[in-house]
Amino acid sequence: MSVKEPEFLRKKKASNETPIVSVIMPAFHSERTIDAAILSVLCQDVALELLILDNSPDDGTYTAVLSYLGDPRVIYHHNPVNEGVAASRNIGIGMAKGRYIAFLDSDDWWAPGKLKKQVSCLEETGLVLCSTAREFVEPDGTRTGRVVGVPERITYRKLLHTNCINCSSVLAKREVIAEFGMEHDDAHEDYILWLHILKKYKKAAGINEPLLFYRKSASAKTGNKLKSAQMHYRSLRYAGIGPVRSAVYFVSYAVHGVIKHGGLG
Predict the structure, then answer these.
(1) pLDDT of residue 3
(2) Residue 215: its pLDDT value, please?
(3) What is the CA radius of gyration of the chain?
(4) The pTM is what?
(5) Residue 262 contacts by C-beta under 8 Å, 6 or more apart in sequence?
(6) Which residues of the chain have pLDDT under 50?
């Protein structure tokens, strides 16, 4: 059942305000989790638009978002077929009007003030991408207190050794995201994008605060650790890294995975 939007949020609507941030949210079988995701976006204290790209059949996702469609910040797009997460995000990138793009999966949510902190960070540093730390939550949404941090500066070399950028934590300049887009649903499409960006733009910023609440799910692409490991190697190859170097970086990834997750992932 959809959660009714609080009155204080309705009072904050600004239909004629040009968005600073375009939030791209792919959705698939998301009727149980998307309320929390949407509310965490609408609570942000920056001018924004929320682009919901629904890949679901008639499963209740549309019903869950219906009560939010009166908010001029919320734009709903239903794909007639399941386009996959990379293609859905690319559709959102093409629709985006904001100066910056943020990604949020429909089963994750943000802490208040996340976007404002990231916009300030990018404007102060002149960098093109900002990531944050995240806290793991259980599939039912229970917080665990287990936090994965992020470095203050993320380089291309560091990213080759381990993917420390979580997609739902990212804020980046729109033109930089649009320059590369996302591709290869059979790999980690977001990781490939970060590698392309940092290879050209050298550094990204990190805010080491858990401003993202990240829901772990066995059905997610990263839920199966062996499959995730295979996809990581494939991502390095898609990003133009040779087979020998990819194997070396994969070993580093595996070590970091053991530390971060207690296993490959």
Answers:
(1) 39
(2) 93
(3) 18
(4) 0.88
(5) none
(6) 1-15, 263-265
